[in-house]
Amino acid sequence: MVDTKLNTTEFNILVTGFEKELTKANKSDSHIIEHTSQTKEFLSYMEEHNINYVKLIDQALADDYFVYLQQRQNQRAGGTLEEATISRHKNTIRKFWK
Length: 98
What we know:
By secondary structure, the chain is mainly α.
């Protein structure tokens, strides 16, 4: 898991709100940490591509992010991310958008 710092105030507020929703839904600490980390990584990717407002994120950008995940190095095990890991990222981002 990547510990990501976000530069955009809007993104930080959204992540904090998402974390509160997960807590309110009685999700486990590990679940909250994983989902928050994955959401930050997604939003950090957007920042790196000069997207600093959530309203500018469209399906094409999200698809680009998922392609990036398929190529991203697995920081723990080497190689690339497993398909199951990418699927968890996708599910997290879907939950975040709701």
